[in-house]
Amino acid sequence: MAVVRWTPFRELSSIRRDMQRLMGDLMEPIQSRELLGWPKNDGETGIVPNLELINKKDKLIVRAELPGIEKEDVELSITDDTLTIKGEVRKSEEIKEDDYYLSEISYGKFSRTITVPAEVDGGKAKASMKNGVLEIVFPRTKESKPKEIKVDIS
User: Fold this and answer.
1) Please, are residues 115 and 108 in contact by the beta-carbon 8 Å criterion?
2) Whole-angstrom Cα distance, residue 107 to residue 90?
3) Whole-structure pTM over 0.70, yes or no?
4) Contacts of 23 (CB under 8 A, 6+ apart)
């Protein structure tokens, strides 16, 4: 068996690397939102609707989770390449603060703004809401639709 010289700094370096990996795994969802330019919340509440952007040949689909929100309480605005979803989560009944054992549901106004690709036509966007999921479909402009070109290989 070979004798290996022990160096405490190698041990510390290994611990530091493991801690960075652990913290990176824990913080990745938060950091990815920040890197994409999405705000954590609007400053009024802790409500941040989760989104999906789906890229199809002829359209772009944006889905937002809005559980417990009525479609009358949601407002959409599209300007150039920006989509803003605003709304409010309201209490269904008035309950006195003293009556709560536990309250983890957030109530209040929220806002989420994202940049959509410039090759979509915001003027022809259509929105629908079903089972707490808001879906916005942006048709692609003619210039942005992918074209297939067949190339013969000889």
Assistant:
1) no
2) 6
3) no
4) none
